[in-house]
C-alpha cells in the first residue's frame, strides 16, 4: 500500500461519505481499490469483502422520536444523526463536524443531551429521542426558542438547533446558575458566527423565568 | 463508516465470550471514541458488541471503598453525591474533560480505554507505530506540540488523553477486571503502560479482559485538592498539561500528598519523588518550586513541545498553591 507522506495531517472528514457509498455499491470491482480510503483497503486485505453481505444486514429498531413510536430497520453503521436527517427527513438537527467536536447535532435521548453524530441508532432500542422539531408543542414555541429570538441568539442559525437543545439540557441539569457556569456547560456547542453573548443571555433569562423546560 | 455486525449482550460473561470468539470484534460502550475512530478508518472492527446493557452502572460504598461500575456515565459520576463527598478530586477531573453532551455518553471504562489524540494516529495516511506497528512515528520529527516529555521511546511519543485517569492514579485506584481466565485486579498505576517497543498496547489488559469497575480507597484529601488543566482554549479541549494534586495538611505541614500529571506521558504520570520530597515539609511556594524541580527530572522535549518543560513545573506549583489555599 502506497503511503502518502503529505504534511496535511489534520484534515477532518476528508473522505466524503458519498464516495464511500458508491464504492460499497461496486465493491466487487477490484480496480476501485486503488482510489479507496485505507480503511476500506484494510477491510479488503482481511477479505471481509467476501463476507460483505452479512454486514449489510439490517437490525430491527423500535424507538420513539418526538413522541411518535417508530418501527425501523437500520444498518448498524447508521448514526442517529443520519437516521434523523436522511431516513426520517427530520433536518432540524444539523451535521457540523460529524466527529463530536461542534455540538450542532445535539439531541435529547431519554431526556439527556447527547451527540447524535456519535450515537449509533441501533444502540437506542426502546429509547425516547427528542429533536428541535419535537421541543415545541404545536404552534407554540418553546421558551428557549422564544428567548433565542428575543436576544438575537443566532446569526446564520446553523448551530442554533444544537444550542437550543443544549441550553434546555443545561437548565434541566441545574447548570445554568451563573453566566460563567452557562458558558462552561455550553462549551460543547461551537458557533462560527460568535453569537455566544446573546446565547448566554437567552439561557440565563429562561432560567430566571423559572418556567419548566 | 464500513458496515459491521452488531450484537447486544447483557452479562459480563457473554461480553467476554463474544469478544474471544471473534478476533475482530470491539466492545461498544458510549461510542464517543470508538465511533469517531471508526468513521476515520483508524479502527475497522468486523463486529461491535454493545455492552451498554451490562449491569455495571452502580456507584456505591463497599468496605469503606468507593466502587464505580465501568458503565457509569462520566456525568453521573461527576455529579454523584458519594463521589463528591469521598473523592471530590475525581469529580473535578471528570468535569474538566470533554463537554456535557459527551460526558452524558462516555463511560468510566471507555474513558480509561480511549486512544491517544495524536493527530498522526488519527490519520490512516500517516505513519504511526501505534496504529500500524512498524510504520514509524510521524510525530517524532513532525508536529509534536501535544506530545510527551516523560517516558517516551523512539517508537512513540504520544500522550494519554484522559483527565479522569490523572485523578485516579493520584487516588491509588484499583481496576477490576473479568476475562477469559476469571477475575483480577490491577492497580491504576500499572494499568496504562509506557510505549517501549510496543506502542500499539496502551495498557496491560489482555485480549478479552473486560473492565467491570474501579475501586478507590478512602483518604484524607477531601479538603485540599485541585485539578488544573491547561489547554489552548478555556474549555472543551484536551490538556496540554494537567495536574491532579491532593494534600492532607496539619496546620501548615504536609502530612500526605499525591501528585499526578496529564498531557506529559503515554500514561497518567504519577510524581512519587516530588510527593516524597514534600511529605513533612511546610506548604510554601518555595517548597512547591523545589518539588516541581524534582518532578521534572528526566523530562525531554521534541521541539514543538519544548514549552511543556516550563509549563509543566509551573502548572504543578499553581495546582499545589490552589490545593493548599496559598493561591
Ligand atoms: C470532541 C471530544 C473531546 C473530548 N475531550 C476530552 C477531554 O478533554 N478529556 C477527556 O478525558 N476525554 C475527552 N474526550 C474523550 C471521551 O472522554 C472518551 O471518548 C470517552 O470517555 C470514551 O468512553 P466511551 O464510553 O464513549 O467509550 P467507547 O468509545 O465506547 O470505547 C472506547 C474503547 O474502550 C473500549 N471499552 C469500553 N468499555 C470497556 C470496558 N468496560 N472494558 C474494556 N474495554 C472497554 C471499547 O472497546 C473501545 O475500544 C473527548 C472526546 C471527544 C469526541
Ligand atoms: S506518537 Fe505514537 S501515536 Fe503518534 S504517530 Fe508516533 S507512534 Fe503514532
Ligand atoms: S456534528 Fe455532532 S458534534 Fe459536530
Ligand atoms: S449562528 Fe452561525 S454558527 Fe452559530
From TrEMBL, chain A:
GO terms for molecular function: 2 iron, 2 sulfur cluster binding; metal ion binding; oxidoreductase activity, acting on the aldehyde or oxo group of donors. Residues 59-135 form the 2Fe-2S ferredoxin-type domain. Transmembrane segments: none annotated. Signal peptide: none annotated. Keywords: 2Fe-2S, Iron, Iron-sulfur, Metal-binding, Oxidoreductase, Plasmid. The keyword Iron-sulfur applies. This is 2Fe-2S iron-sulfur cluster binding domain-containing protein. It comes from Adhaeribacter swui. The lineage of its organism: Bacteria, Pseudomonadati, Bacteroidota, Cytophagia, Cytophagales.
Automatic annotation (TrEMBL), chain B:
Keywords: FAD, Flavoprotein, Plasmid. SUPFAM superfamilies: CO dehydrogenase flavoprotein C-terminal domain-like (SSF55447), FAD-binding/transporter-associated domain-like (SSF56176). It holds the Pfam family CO_deh_flav_C. PROSITE patterns: FAD_PCMH. One of its GO terms (molecular function) is FAD binding. Residues 1-221 form the FAD-binding PCMH-type domain. It comes from the Bacteria. Signal peptide: none annotated. Gene3D superfamilies: 3.30.465.10, CO dehydrogenase flavoprotein, C-terminal domain, Uridine Diphospho-n-acetylenolpyruvylglucosamine Reductase, domain 2. InterPro entries: CO_DH_flav_C (IPR005107), CO_DH_flav_C_dom_sf (IPR036683), Diverse_Substr_Oxidored (IPR051312), FAD-bd_PCMH (IPR016166), FAD-bd_PCMH-like_sf (IPR036318), FAD-bd_PCMH_sub1 (IPR016167), FAD-bd_PCMH_sub2 (IPR016169), Mopterin_DH_FAD-bd (IPR002346). PANTHER family: XANTHINE DEHYDROGENASE FAD-BINDING SUBUNIT XDHB-RELATED (PTHR42659:SF9), XANTHINE DEHYDROGENASE SUBUNIT C-RELATED (PTHR42659). This is Xanthine dehydrogenase family protein subunit M.
Amino acid at each position: 500500500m502506497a503511503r502518502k507522506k503529505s504534511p496535511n495531517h489534520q484534515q477532518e472528514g476528508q473522505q466524503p461519505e458519498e464516495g464511500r457509498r458508491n464504492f460499497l455499491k461496486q465493491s466487487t470491482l477490484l480496480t476501485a481499490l486503488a482510489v479507496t480510503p485505507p480503511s476500506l483497503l484494510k477491510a479488503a486485505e482481511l477479505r471481509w469483502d467476501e463476507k460483505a453481505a452479512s454486514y449489510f444486514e439490517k437490525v430491527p429498531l423500535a424507538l420513539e422520536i418526538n413522541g411518535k413510536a417508530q418501527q425501523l430497520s437500520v444498518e448498524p453503521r447508521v448514526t442517529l444523526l443520519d437516521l434523523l436527517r436522511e431516513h426520517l427527513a427530520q433536518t432540524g438537527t444539523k451535521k457540523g463536524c460529524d466527529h463530536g467536536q461542534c455540538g450542532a447535532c445535539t439531541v435529547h435521548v431519554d431526556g439527556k443531551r447527547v451527540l447524535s453524530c456519535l450515537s449509533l441508532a441501533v444502540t437506542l432500542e426502546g429509547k425516547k429521542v427528542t429533536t428541535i422539531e419535537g421541543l415545541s408543542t404545536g404552534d407554540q414555541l418553546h421558551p428557549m426558542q422564544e428567548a433565542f429570538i428575543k436576544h438575537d441568539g443566532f446569526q446564520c442559525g446553523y448551530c442554533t438547533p444544537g444550542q437550543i437543545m443544549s441550553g434546555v439540557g443545561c437548565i434541566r441539569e441545574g447548570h445554568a446558575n451563573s453566566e460563567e457556569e452557562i458558558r462552561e456547560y455550553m462549551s460543547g456547542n461551537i458557533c462560527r458566527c460568535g453569537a455566544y453573548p446573546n446565547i448566554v443571555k437567552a439561557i440565563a433569562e429562561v432560567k430566571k423565568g423559572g418556567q419548566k423546560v | 463508516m464500513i458496515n459491521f455486525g452488531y450484537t447486544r449482550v447483557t452479562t459480563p460473561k457473554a461480553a467476554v465470550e463474544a469478544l474471544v470468539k471473534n478476533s475482530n470484534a470491539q466492545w461498544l460502550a458510549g461510542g464517543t471514541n470508538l465511533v469517531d475512530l471508526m468513521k476515520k478508518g483508524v479502527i475497522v472492527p468486523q463486529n461491535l458488541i454493545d455492552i451498554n446493557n451490562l449491569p455495571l452502572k452502580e456507584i456505591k460504598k463497599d468496605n469503606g471503598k468507593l466502587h464505580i461500575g465501568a458503565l457509569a456515565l462520566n456525568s453521573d459520576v461527576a455529579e454523584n453525591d458519594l463521589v463528591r463527598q469521598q473523592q471530590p478530586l475525581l469529580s473535578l477531573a471528570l468535569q474538566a474533560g470533554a463537554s456535557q453532551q459527551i460526558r452524558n455518553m462516555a463511560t468510566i471504562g471507555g474513558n480509561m480505554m480511549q486512544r491517544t489524540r495524536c493527530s498522526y494516529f488519527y490519520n490512516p495516511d500517516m505513519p504511526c507505530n501505534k496504529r500500524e506497528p512498524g510504520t514509524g512515528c510521524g510525530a517524532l520529527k513532525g508536529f509534536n506540540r501535544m506530545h510527551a516529555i516523560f517516558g517516551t521511546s523512539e517508537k512513540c511519543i504520544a500522550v494519554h488523553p484522559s483527565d479522569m485517569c490523572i485523578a485516579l492514579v493520584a487516588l491509588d485506584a484499583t481496576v477490576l477486571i473479568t476475562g477469559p481466565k476469571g477475575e483480577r485486579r490491577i492497580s491504576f498505576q500499572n494499568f496504562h503502560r509506557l510505549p517501549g517497543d510496543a506502542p500499539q498496547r496502551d495498557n496491560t489488559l489482555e485480549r478479552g479482559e473486560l473492565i467491570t469497575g474501579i475501586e478507590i480507597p478512602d483518604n484524607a484529601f477531601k479538603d485540599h485538592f485541585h485539578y488544573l488543566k491547561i489547554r489552548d482554549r478555556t474549555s472543551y479541549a484536551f490538556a496540554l498539561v494537567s495536574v491532579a494534586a491532593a494534600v492532607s495538611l496539619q496546620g501548615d505541614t504536609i502530612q500526605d500528598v499525591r501528585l499526578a500529571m496529564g498531557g506529559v506521558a503515554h500514561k497518567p504520570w504519577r510524581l512519587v519523588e516530588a510527593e516524597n520530597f514534600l511529605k513533612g515539609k511546610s506548604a510554601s511556594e518555595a517548597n512547591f518550586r523545589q518539588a516541581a524541580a524534582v518532578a521534572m527530572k528526566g523530562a525531554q522535549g521534541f521541539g514543538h513541545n519544548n514549552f511543556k518543560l516550563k509549563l509543566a513545573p509551573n502548572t504543578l506549583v499553581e495546582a499545589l498553591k490552589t490545593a493548599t489555599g496559598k493561591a
